[in-house]
Every structure is written in C-alpha cells, then in structure tokens.
C-alpha cells in the first residue's frame, strides 16, 4: 500500500492493457476514465506498456485523452502520442529476419512480420489474422516479405504443434541467442495454437518503462 506522501510524488503511471486496464470485453470502465482525468488534473502522466501494436493502443489513448508516449510491442517501440514521433525503436536485424523466414519454409508453421502500424503476411500465411492474439492490429497481405524485412519490430510464428514451435525455437536459439529475445507460449484465445515471438535483444516492457522515464526526465525514487 502506497503512503499518502508517496502518492503525492507520483509523476507517471504505466499500465498494461490486456488483463490489466481493459475489462474482459476489451473496454475501459467509467471509474478508470474518471481516475485518469483526476490524475491529469494533478499533473500525473498516464501511459501504456503493451504487447499490442502502437496503432492498436492509440484508440485507448484517445479515449482517455492521454498525451504521453506509448510503449508498444513489449518495448520494441516507444512513440509519442498524438504526434507519432519515434522516441525508441528496435528492429530485428535483417539477416535474422531472413533466416527465420527460411527456417519457416521447412515446417508447417505460419509466420508474420510486425511493424509499428500493421502486421504483414503472405498468401501462404493467410491464416495469420485468424490465429494471432494481437488484438486491434491491422493485418495486410503482401505478395512477398522482401520489402518488409528492414523495419520489422517483431517476428511471430504460429503453429498448432508444440513440437514444431519448440523445434524452431531451439534451431534459432544457438546462432541468434546473443542478438534476439524469444517468447514461446500457448494462445489463450485459440486452443491448440502455439506462438514464438522474436525481438531484438534489449527490448522489454521493463526496459521500455526505463527509457520512457528517462525521456520524460522523471527522477526515480526507491
């Protein structure tokens, strides 16, 4: 429980969206809206740190009238709102994106490339919009990934087999371990679907919060 003295010194509050700020139906409650408004009146800034794309988080920032930069894709991108200026971005190195795409051709797996504004997939991966858990994202089908490997913030692979996803994770872990982070998990909304998310090393929600605090020149206190 925070003391009244600590509460008075608050300058920034950051929430996740899914499973935290949002209700089960994906909406924001009236109490939250009123609280954020009161915080703003007292000079407290409010933001999100989410696994969603920036564009998917924007509608909630607009709903709450937030003017603080947003942390998206688990810390891979920090972008001002509503201006849209880049504060931090972390692209997966092109050679790793290309190698992952080559790996995926050897397995019954779907792969997509996440950018700040959309998730790109090819005809071969046309099930991506149906099986991914990136709520609120815009999906765009493209003829080839060749024009989209240079600004990829996250590579996502999906399959209906634990073994396939785990085999790919193990295959890329050794050559890529020092340069990328991987997240391996089962879908909550699509039973039997497993995901592997690949991001450049050094990006996380926690790191994103540290970078945002530094950008806003807010002094951290123990």
Describe the structure.
The protein is of the alpha+beta class and 222 residues long. The chain is built from eight helices and eleven strands. The chain has two domains: 4-90 and 204-215, 3-Layer(aba) Sandwich (Rossmann fold); 94-200, Hypothetical Protein, Haloacid Dehalogenase-like Hydrolase, Chain: A, domain 2 (2-Layer Sandwich). Helices cover 33% and strands 22% of the residues. Strands 8-7-6-9-11-10 form a six-stranded mixed beta sheet. The chain has a three-stranded antiparallel beta sheet with strand order 3-4-5, sandwiched between helices. The mean pLDDT is 91.
Give a brief outline of the structure.
The protein has helices at about 5-10, 15-20, 30-40, 55-65, 95-105, 130, 160-175, 205-215; strands at about 10-15, 45-50, 70, 75-80, 85-90, 110-115, 120, 140, 155-160, 180-185, 195-200. The protein has about 220 residues and is α+β, with helices and mostly antiparallel strands.
